[in-house]
Amino acid sequence: MPTSRAPQISQHDHVTLVQLGDEYKNLDEHSLEDISTILLDLAKSIDPPLMVLDLSHTKFFGSAFIELMFRTWNKIKVRDGGKFSISGLSKTCREVVEVTHIDRLWPVFETSEEAIESLRNET
Predict the structure, then answer these.
(1) Residue 56 vs residues 44, 60, 61, 80, 123: alpha-carbon distances, Å
(2) Neighbour-count burial for 8-24, b at 16+ CB within 10 Å, e otherwise
(3) How far apart are CA 36 and CA 59, in angstroms?
(4) Which of 14, 13, 64, 12 is CA-nearest to residue 39?
(5) What is the DSSP string of 34-98?
(6) What is the CATH number of the domain that holds 75?
(7) Is there a domain that residue 104 lies in?
(8) Could you read off the pLDDT of 91-102 as tens digits, one per residue?
């Protein structure tokens, strides 16, 4: 069942932080309806195009969420100076990211603070 709660979105030194709360513990294709629109709209509109996706509360994500991250990243990377990173991965999610080599495309950080600092220093 899709969630009706939006992720928490905030700005930190020109970096947009998207934090997925407890309601996003399991990100399978059935739970992505609301968040898909939010992430893709943000990817097109944030200025500067710097985004950290914090998955600290997420314990599982499937291929549909991986596709959503790729779509989000693709909209960000084509914009001048566009950067995307993820933070707060659980052990299981980190294994998925490493096995699929996503960690070679996007920086992965332990905390959102580290991710924000890294993107802020690149501008």
Answers:
(1) 24, 11, 12, 28, 25
(2) eeeebeebbbbbbeeeb
(3) 18
(4) 64
(5) HHHHHHHHHHHH-SS-EEEEE-TT--EE-HHHHHHHHHHHHHHHTSTT-EEEEE---HHHHHHHH
(6) 3.30.750.24
(7) yes
(8) 999 999 999 999
Q: Which amino acid is at 74?
A: N
Rounded Cα distance, 115 and 36, in Å = 22
Closest to 46 in 3D by CA, of 114, 118, 108, 119: 119
84 in any annotated domain? yes
- How many residues belong to the chain? 123
109: domain range?
Answer: 49-123
Residue 71 inside a domain? The answer is yes
pLDDT in tens, 28-66: 887 898 899 999 999 999 999 999 999 999 999 999 999
The model's pTM: 0.93
Give the number of domains in the chain.
Answer: 1
